[in-house]
Specification:
2 domains, 297 residues, Rossmann fold, alpha/beta, 5-stranded parallel beta sheet, 4-stranded parallel beta sheet, 10 helices, elongated
Length: 297
């Protein structure tokens, strides 16, 4: 009889004292492709896994703020998951010196969640005593005492994406200035100076994905220099954004109606970035909202 191969789902339990960087670590793991859930009650974890067919890795944040948290319960949970053949488990513990934790709470003026009715010093001491047995069984320990958020990102990536390196998702979007700027943009380029296909009756009803519309836009004497400089700028800056730890870059191109010029330019830039090896997604906002009526560009 052939041996049955069990596909394991990678799970990282992220814990540690409040203020040590647990939330930051979870966000980094999410950027690396993990499904991230923070403050999940421990009693729900095994039910979450029951019957799950999705093999996407999971990052689960658990700490003393969880309503059903206990040191013994956490250790028993680790033991239970460790016995499950379909689970590849890692416990990540974020630690930090008492002095740095107290300074962070002082800077944010937050009450300590473990001891909200006492001093931060008392809370830090109580929480560390509570978590000490978990620290001792942790698979991976990262001391964040001397790390800033960028250095912590690098450390988490070193442990959990040793082959993948840093990931930077780039999204390209076209839009209409008449409907306002999309939210959450990092860069915006105005295409309204380019030749407008709207004034060509045979192109008016088409959009920038049409080859004839794209050719018309690209025939503008200003297009080539604009396109080359935008692509060079983006390709030149992407390594710097990765080094900074940025996980997502949103770039938008706008014109009057979001139908012709911005769409054609966004398509061309996305293609150039893809050919340069950069994973990129593209969205045309007005095309998604477009009805049967043609909105002028």
């Amino acid at each position: 009889m052939a041996e049955q191969i069990t596909t394991q789902r990678r799970i990282v339990l992220v814990t540690g004292p409040s203020g040590a960087g647990r939330s930051t670590a979870i966000h980094v793991l999410e950027d690396l492709g993990f499904e991230a859930i923070d403050n999940l009650p421990m009693g729900l974890l095994t039910r979450l896994l029951d019957g799950a067919d999705d093999q996407q890795p999971m990052a689960l944040g658990i700490d003393a703020r969880n309503r059903d948290f206990s040191t013994i319960g956490f250790i028993e949970l680790v033991a239970k998951l460790g016995r499950m053949e379909q689970v590849d488990l890692t416990t990540l513990y974020l630690d930090c010196s008492d002095e740095v934790l107290l300074r962070r709470f002082s800077e944010t003026r937050r009450r300590h969640p473990v001891s909200s009715d006492a001093s931060p010093e008392t809370g830090v001491t109580r929480e560390k005593e509570l978590l000490q047995p978990i620290r001792e069984i942790a698979d991976t320990l990262i001391d964040t005492s001397t790390l800033n958020v960028h250095q912590l990102r690098e450390e988490v990536e070193r442990w959990f994406a040793p082959q993948g390196g840093r990931h930077l998702a780039v999204s390209i979007e076209s839009f209409s200035y008449k409907r306002g700027l999309p939210r959450g943009l990092d860069m915006v380029f105005d295409c309204r100076f380019l030749a407008n296909p709207y004034w060509r009756p045979e192109l008016r009803a088409e959009d920038g994905r049409n080859p004839d519309v794209a050719t018309y836009v690209q025939s503008d004497m200003n297009y080539a220099a604009f396109f080359d400089r935008v692509v060079d700028l983006l390709i030149g800056l992407l390594p710097a954004f990765r080094a900074e730890g940025k996980a997502h870059l949103s770039v938008a191109f706008g014109c009057t109606g979001g139908q012709h010029r911005s769409v054609a330019t966004a398509e061309a830039v996305a293609k150039a970035l893809a050919e340069a090896g950069q994973p990129v997604s593209i969205r045309h906002r007005e095309m998604e909202r477009r009805s049967l009526n043609v909105r002028p560009d």
